[in-house]
């Protein structure tokens, strides 16, 4: 069973992101405030759960949360400010939309920037330790997957429905064959040969 709280504050929000390592699509973050006596047996880091389990958990999490928020940061912004800053920006945007305002923030990973003077802690592998981060990871992952399924209809040749924009062999072959789209992150190494510098 995951821990419910890291701090002594009831209004402690957890936040996490999905899609950081993808070649296409947004980076998506979620933030959530859970009630005092929240329990959900199946809840875990979204990467450890099947798609079916994540889809089953999402409405339960949304229904029982005090407040939650999800944000997509598009590739054009990722390319402008880099993926780390875009991930942090996505999490910050989610946090400021929570109502009531959290009194403490716990963040999955080891990097964050303060927002509105709210105290925070970064927790490596936090999504497998704390319920609010795990719940945020499920929301971020399911909302991002939904987004990728939608844009798959526009560009089916990249099979985003399957690979969700991650750098699979199939995805890279499609980039090689068809080029890039408005959803690709141009600041990323889309093809392995981009590493070879022509001197």
Given the C-alpha coordinates, what overall shape results? globular
Largest beta-sheet characterization:
5 strands, mixed
User: Could you tell me the number of beta strands?
Assistant: 5
Computed over alpha carbons, the radius of gyration is 17 Å
SSE-based structural type: alpha/beta
How confident overall, as mean pLDDT? 95
Question: N-to-C terminal Cα separation, in Å?
Answer: 55 Å
Q: What string, H for helix and E for strand, traces the elements in order?
A: EEHEHHEEHHH
Strand content: 15-25%
How much helicity do the residues have?
25-40%
**Spatial arrangement of strands, main beta sheet:** 3-2-1-4-5
Task: Write a concise keyword list for the protein shown above.
5-stranded mixed sheet; alpha/beta; 199 residues
What is shown here, in short?
The chain is of the alpha/beta class. Helices cover about 35% and strands about 15% of the residues.
